[in-house]
Structure formats: C-alpha cells, structure tokens
Amino acid sequence: MAAPWITIKDMPQHVEEEVTIKGWMYNKRSSGKIHFLQIRDGSGFVQAVMVKKEVSPEEFEAAKKLWMEASVEITGTVRSDDRAPSGVELTVSNIKVNHNPTDEYPIGKKDHGVDFLLDNRHLWLRSQRQRAIMTIRERIVWSWRQFLHDRDFLLVDSPIITGAIGEGASGLFELDYFDQKAYLAQTGQLYAEAAAAAYGKVYCFGPTFRAEKSKTRRHLTEFWMLEPEVAYYDHKDNMDLQEALVSYTVEQVLEHCKEELALLERELSPLKSVLEGPFYRISYRDAVKKLNELGSSIEFGDDLGAEDETILTQQYDRPVFVECYPKGAKAFYMKENPDDKETVLCADLLAPEGYGEIIGGSQREDDLDKLTARMESDGLDMDSYGWYLDLRRYGTFVHSGFGIGLERTIAWICGLHHIREVIPWPRTIYRLNP
Predict the structure, then answer these.
(1) CA 222 from chain center: how many Å?
(2) Which domains does the chain have, with CATH numbers?
(3) pLDDT in tens, 165-214
(4) 409-418 pLDDT, tens per residue?
(5) Helix or strand or coil: residue 395?
(6) Are 389 and 371 in contact (CB under 8 A)?
(7) pLDDT-derived band of residue 384, with 50, 70 and 90 as boundaries?
(8) I want to staple 363 with a disulfide (CB 3.0 to 4.6 A). Which of 123, 138, 140, 400 is the partner?
(9) Nearest alpha carbon to residue 7 among 43, 36, 33, 60
C-alpha cells in the first residue's frame, strides 16, 4: 500500500508514520554517506535526511545530482526533532525526481540587487521570506472579510472600468473604450455609496489604479483597497469603525502569524501597543502647528506629504487620525464641516513608526446643492455623474466610508521598508514585468 501524500504543514500529526511529500528542493548539503535535502511544498519547509545504506544506489546518486528547485516526491518516515523549526524531519526511504533543472537556479545564496530580484519575481516568490509576507497578506485579507462579515456588511463588487472620476484627474489611467473615454478605477467608493443606499452596510474590495508618477517607497500604480460604506454613519462613527478594523487586524496577525513575523525579524512591541489603548486623534490645524514646531514648512491648505506623515507618526506609539483637512486638499464628495467651513469631515489614519497613511475616509456630502456646486467648481463632467447625483435626489441620507490600502497595511505590520515586497506582482512607473 502506497504511503499517503500529505503536506509538510501536517507532518507533526504523522510522527513515526510513513508518508509521501511532493515539492521542490530549495537547498542541499551532503556529508559523504548522507544527503540533507531541504524541501518545500507551499505549506512549509522540512529537512529530508537520506542515508546511503537505506536507499538504492541509484536513488542516492540521483539525489547527489539535484539542483536547487528540482521537483521531487519523497517517501519516508516522519521523525520528531526538537531542533527543527517545524519540530519534525523526514527519514527518506524513496525519492522520485520529477524534474531536475539543467543549470543553476538564478537566485542563489549570494546577495542580489532589488532590480534583479524584481526581474525574477516569479522565482523570488519561492523564498521563505516572500512566503512569510504572502502568508501575512492572506491573513490580513481574511481578517478584513471576517470582521465585516461578522458585522453584517454585504460585499458588492465595483467595476474596474469606469466613466466617472473618483479622485483627482491627474492620477487617471485613460482607456479607449470603444467610442467612449473610460478610466481604470481609482476607487470603488462612488459605487459603494450607491450600494449603501440599497443595502445599508456594504464594502468593495479589489485592485485600484493610480497614474501618479511617484517613485516613493509607499507607492504602486496598481494596489488593492478595501472600501466599506455605511448608511447613517457620521464622521465619528466612521473613525470608530476604522479603529476597530485595524485593531482586529493586528490582533489576528499577532495570533496567527507568529512564525512569519519572527522570520521577518519584526519587533512585536510596536504592534502590541496598538492594542493597548484608543488611537490618537488630532485636527489638521493642530497637526500643521505641531509639524511647524518640529521643523516642517507645511502651511494650512497643503496636504500632508510623506515626510510630514513620518515626522508626525514618530510622535505617537499608536495610529493617529488627522481630522478635518481643508476643502481644497481633499476630494469633491467630502462633507463640509459645519463647525469650520474651510474644512471637511474627513480623516486620514496614519500608522506609527513612520509608515504614514493607511486609511483615507470621510463623511460624504449628502446635500445635493452643495455637492453639485463643488463638482462644478472642480470642473467635473456633470453628465458622467448623473447616476451619482441621483443618490442625493432620491432619499439622500447621512453616510460615511473609507478606503484602507492593503499593501501599505502589510508593509507596516511586517515592518518592511518598501511596499514592492508585499504584492506578488508589483507595478510601479518603471515596472510592468513579470
């Protein structure tokens, strides 16, 4: 009877049993009569020990000739090993080589430049570090969906091709759409607003596109964004929801991704401090004053740049909301602040440790006349927004929402310097392949 095929992840449940694992060899060392084969299968990593006298000469010789990333099927007995990261190793009784590369694997043990690794991103994803990052990415996505599902939010997918501008026109990818002008979506928010009028609590989640020619470590031209929208939530309700989501996300990663965080050498105390109290809240006006005191030349009316966000977040040990930006610095759909008509009811959530903005949100302008006036002053094509204005014509209502960037959130939680590592196939102004 053939040994059952199991995953490396499940090996600790099969100690002293004969099993088969199927995967790839990512490293090897030999000491004459023993081969130590490091095997991965997508679920984990394990060492397979092949003793010359316990296998056929042909199999031992075949293992000796294996290159990195050879695909193999290995049968053997699972043994407990407290020294192993997984707590087990495999004593080999049989090996089947499915494919042995004909030359050396391009990504070796030596250090490689970032451009080389990105050119070989399809192979770089196989590394332990990248697997750890992608595992945390998946956990964050799962946490977001679970958080919203448990609060009765309905997923409503928004279109990627759109005729309406959600943010500034300078950041649009324009398309020829048969005989019309169209754009890659910058946000699903406008559509989420329509869905909130139908279903109350909704969210969309998918790729978004920004054509800004930015070269900073925080920017991608294609990234993923979660965008909840809630009927009858005001500005404060909106921030409370954001804080609960971020706290839950950090809690889930700390609970379920200990090994991955350790592999990334992530210092955990800054993440744990996120859970120790409420997030900080500061008005835009006070933030400008504080930044001026700290040496920034920012003036009222300017949006916070990356350097300003870094300076500001270094003053706090937990995320901080910057509330009520000037109208001119923010999008047309944001609600005028009744207590300060130069500003709007919005907030950016800045992550600590200098990571800057991860969420942008606002209460939406529900007054048809005010919204129309703002759109006209911004020079928007009103014909493209007839459907959006209908939301204010037929049962207008207080509502709020936000967008949280997946990649920026991952970079912060993982403690990574550059955002390009946290998405499987990064797109920047200079990179379209692989």
Answers:
(1) 12
(2) 8-99 (2.40.50.140), 121-152+243-422 (3.30.930.10)
(3) 766 666 789 999 999 989 999 999 999 999 999 999 999 999 999 988 88
(4) 999 999 999 9
(5) coil
(6) yes
(7) confident
(8) 400
(9) 43
